Amino acid sequence: MRQAARNGFPEAGFAPGPLAAPSRRGFLKAIGAGAGALVIGAHLPMPALAAEAAAKTVGPADPRPHAFIIIAPDNTVTVLAKHLDKGQGIVTGIATIAAEELDADWSQVRGAFAPADAKLYANHFFGIQGTGGSTAIANSWDELRMAGAAARAMLVAAAAARWTVPAGEVTVSKGVVRHAASNRSLTFGELAEEAAKLPVPQQVKLKDPKDYVLIGKPDLHRLDHVSKTNGTAIFAMDIRRPDQVTAVLARSPRFGGTVKSVDDAAARKVPGVIEVVSLPVGVAVIARNTWAAMKGREALTVTWDDVNSEMRGTDAMLADYRKLADQPGAAAAGKGDADKAFAEAAARGGHVVEGDFVFPYLAHAPMEPLNAVVALNPEGGCTIWAGSQFQGVEQMVAAHILGCKPEQVKIETQWAGGSFGRRATTNADYIAEAVMVAKAYPKAPVHLVWTREDDIKGGRYRPLFLHRIKAAVDDKGALVAWKQRIVGQSFMAGTPFEAAMVKNGVDATMVEGASDMAYAVPNLAVDAHTVASPVTTLWWRSVGHTHTAYSKEVMIDRLAKAAGKDPVAFRLEMLKDHPRLAGVLKLAAEKAGWGQPMPQGKGRGVAVHESFNSYVAHVADVTVDAKGQVKVDRVVVAIDCGQVINPDIVKSQMEGGTGWGIGHALRGEITMTDGMVDQANFDSFLPMRMSDMPVVEVHIMPSSERPTGAGEPGVPTAAPAVANAIFSVTGQPQQTLPFSRGGIVS
Amino acid sequence: MENTIALRVNGRAVSVTAMADTPLLYILRNDLALNGPKYGCGLGECGACTVILDGVAARSCVIPLAGAEGREVVTLEGLGSSSAPHPVQQAFIEEQAAQCGYCMNGMIMTAKALLDRNPDPTMDEVRRALSGNLCRCGTHVEILRAVMRAARLLSSPGAQHDDQPSDRHHARPDDRIAVPADADLCGADGGERRPADR
């Protein structure tokens, strides 16, 4: 695929594998823990994750002293997150899990980002260190419970030894270790040094969930809230190293373009501009400050070579997609004989419904534009300060650029101002750029900053997709056949993830949510065409489900109408084998007052979907005014994500997912004319505004199942629930996004 | 090309030498090492850079330095600190109104300016006041609730807050190169339980 090689990024990629661990002393220094701290970790091999299930007693199989928890003599408990916190609250979530088993008092708990280390901090689902796919809690559930329980056992053992009493008589509660019979107590901090000298227990006993005091409880304050209200939370954008310079990059205005020639004479005359360098990825202007760098870039004259560029506009691309949709694609799912079932349904009083769905390119546009600070280390390698989401990839890509070992690439992960998938790329794009600039200008730390225009025009979009769906209900209103063709780009093809993610010519992320449709249907055929284009694409909050859930749920309402059935009842008939989906559907419907008559001009719609092992249903209420303009009034969400760690954060994620789904359905689109992106900033790529946000009610299904995730699963059903609410009023199915295209949203 | 321009930031007189067309935001961030105001769009479209200029919420990314000459700028740092938050900050903390937190500066500064001129706004008035501030995480519901709570906090007896910026929060020259030692210890601001009044 051409897109992998786009713009001169290194293609060497990486091979997930173990890297050398840092020395313990160096690590402790890095995270600021002094002498006398108890540092505890627990390494859980991957197979144990599946096998553990209900086991109450599990053993840290490999109790090396890598840190998840640091108990310091000052009585603080610092829990290290190997995952990026980009707003989803994972630092708090992970700390909650550890603190629960540790019986720490929440007021003594701190959070910190773990350093980059492929061996110690790999995401068990990815095999490399990285955050995504709503995996962070599921990943940390066993690991952090075991680490917390092990640390607690060591504190108990240390207290028992000091008091010369049996460990069984020592209790721990709210950060205090007690021996009731002799009325003695010690804090964690007072025991930290002695506990650190003890061996890590080989077996630990985990709490019974009925004894939880932190997990699943409301009103547990997030660890990052105070600092985020007063400017002391540090984002990569806030990093200032001695002598740091700022760089911006002129990139090809068309995807696939390369630098042909540069005239930098005027740029070099801009006060504050230090250097201009041509790189495989563009032309870097390096300056004393941000403004000088920006002005310098404006003064550049760059001629671009478009021989490999995408020259089509999105309308032309879509026309090509429609032609492709007339031809069979690579099979993603198949059972029965859909064509035969359509003929039978048509002949015997059933209904056949068809539709094309169009989903535009979409930018992630996190509030903090992409940026990273890179300083070359005197001993080789470099240090990167960034809202780093794929530390494992970034280490390998930076090492490839610098010709050093991955472990010589240190990463100081910072709070990230949003990501929605954008900071996790298979070639570490913006971090690779920053490393290239630092290599070209080794005199000082380099802060590479993307402007908002760079971000909106910069690609890595949710791909443009066309879905063609044909489905039928029989004369009794039962779904009998479903045929779906999906046309779009794969962002996995040509990357190191291809082998795992692309099977038989189908990228799993293109068809997820369609090929594995939960609704019972005897005849199913899903296929896909993978289209190549230099336009760069990427996962975008909830990935394939951003489009597959939408087309499925909108078609289901059309079929329910054709069958003369209530949309909730119709769905429940087809979800008999999916009790958790049926559960959230019933919960959302009940809480929303489903079935009550709606006043004139108001409509109610529903959607339900599984993604990332979580189950979510949305019920949306809309008003369609006399001019046909739509306003979303209220949304009720129900989620089943297994055992909930922090219900307030799950609620936030459902609100966020709802806003994300609806906001982009209203007006979000990236379009191109002759290969040039039409949008540039938030005046043309239009996000949800405060006035668009409906009232959102979130209901969490009580569950003792293993925890899954909440970051992604709130998105897929939000927009189709709104579309179905509009359909209930107007009878017009919304099959082209965004809604503003159809004139129903201004 | 460069001019020396005097203004007041968080109650302190400062003098900055830079190109006069430099947006105030970059002066605050690059020259004065203030991290409250954030770069989000450079076009006055997202509100992340909001400061209070002579009492009015203003987009520092589109105000040239020359336009701030002789004027009083208050940034987020001028409102309150971790140990002594301003009531608006306190309300945002209590409502857990941040996800990624990058928009928080703009939300809080805009809310502060709104409540200064309208101490008892309706929810619709709050929505309108914040309609120019973008949040991509979808924390809108909590943000709206936080502003309503801030109005209550500010109007309750005994909740008076000294709005005068204090010297403690001023950027020192050294700050421009210093990364706080505890920068990555995110819980340093305390993890106390929220008041049980919700």
TrEMBL record, chain A:
<keyword id="KW-0614">Plasmid</keyword>
<dbReference type="Pfam" id="PF02738">
    <property type="entry name" value="MoCoBD_1"/>
</dbReference>
<dbReference type="InterPro" id="IPR046867">
    <property type="entry name" value="AldOxase/xan_DH_MoCoBD2"/>
</dbReference>
<dbReference type="InterPro" id="IPR052516">
    <property type="entry name" value="N-heterocyclic_Hydroxylase"/>
</dbReference>
<dbReference type="InterPro" id="IPR010916">
    <property type="entry name" value="TonB_box_CS"/>
</dbReference>
<dbReference type="Pfam" id="PF20256">
    <property type="entry name" value="MoCoBD_2"/>
</dbReference>
<dbReference type="InterPro" id="IPR000674">
    <property type="entry name" value="Ald_Oxase/Xan_DH_a/b"/>
</dbReference>
<dbReference type="GO" id="GO:0016491">
    <property type="term" value="F:oxidoreductase activity"/>
</dbReference>
<dbReference type="InterPro" id="IPR037165">
    <property type="entry name" value="AldOxase/xan_DH_Mopterin-bd_sf"/>
</dbReference>
<dbReference type="InterPro" id="IPR019546">
    <property type="entry name" value="TAT_signal_bac_arc"/>
</dbReference>
<protein>
    <submittedName>
        <fullName>Xanthine dehydrogenase family protein molybdopterin-binding subunit</fullName>
    </submittedName>
</protein>
<dbReference type="InterPro" id="IPR006311">
    <property type="entry name" value="TAT_signal"/>
</dbReference>
<feature type="domain" description="Aldehyde oxidase/xanthine dehydrogenase a/b hammerhead">
    <location>
        <begin position="230"/>
        <end position="308"/>
    </location>
</feature>
<dbReference type="InterPro" id="IPR012368">
    <property type="entry name" value="OxRdtase_Mopterin-bd_su_IorB"/>
</dbReference>
<dbReference type="InterPro" id="IPR008274">
    <property type="entry name" value="AldOxase/xan_DH_MoCoBD1"/>
</dbReference>
From TrEMBL, chain B:
<keyword id="KW-0411">Iron-sulfur</keyword>
<dbReference type="InterPro" id="IPR006058">
    <property type="entry name" value="2Fe2S_fd_BS"/>
</dbReference>
<dbReference type="InterPro" id="IPR001041">
    <property type="entry name" value="2Fe-2S_ferredoxin-type"/>
</dbReference>
<dbReference type="GO" id="GO:0016491">
    <property type="term" value="F:oxidoreductase activity"/>
</dbReference>
<dbReference type="InterPro" id="IPR002888">
    <property type="entry name" value="2Fe-2S-bd"/>
</dbReference>
<feature type="compositionally biased region" description="Basic and acidic residues">
    <location>
        <begin position="160"/>
        <end position="177"/>
    </location>
</feature>
<dbReference type="Pfam" id="PF01799">
    <property type="entry name" value="Fer2_2"/>
</dbReference>
<dbReference type="InterPro" id="IPR036010">
    <property type="entry name" value="2Fe-2S_ferredoxin-like_sf"/>
</dbReference>
<dbReference type="Pfam" id="PF00111">
    <property type="entry name" value="Fer2"/>
</dbReference>
<dbReference type="InterPro" id="IPR051452">
    <property type="entry name" value="Diverse_Oxidoreductases"/>
</dbReference>
<dbReference type="InterPro" id="IPR012675">
    <property type="entry name" value="Beta-grasp_dom_sf"/>
</dbReference>
<dbReference type="GO" id="GO:0046872">
    <property type="term" value="F:metal ion binding"/>
</dbReference>
<keyword id="KW-0614">Plasmid</keyword>
<keyword id="KW-0001">2Fe-2S</keyword>
<keyword id="KW-0408">Iron</keyword>
<keyword id="KW-0479">Metal-binding</keyword>
<feature type="domain" description="2Fe-2S ferredoxin-type">
    <location>
        <begin position="3"/>
        <end position="79"/>
    </location>
</feature>
<dbReference type="GO" id="GO:0051537">
    <property type="term" value="F:2 iron, 2 sulfur cluster binding"/>
</dbReference>
<keyword id="KW-0560">Oxidoreductase</keyword>
<protein>
    <submittedName>
        <fullName>(2Fe-2S)-binding protein</fullName>
    </submittedName>
</protein>
<feature type="region of interest" description="Disordered">
    <location>
        <begin position="156"/>
        <end position="198"/>
    </location>
</feature>
<dbReference type="InterPro" id="IPR036884">
    <property type="entry name" value="2Fe-2S-bd_dom_sf"/>
</dbReference>
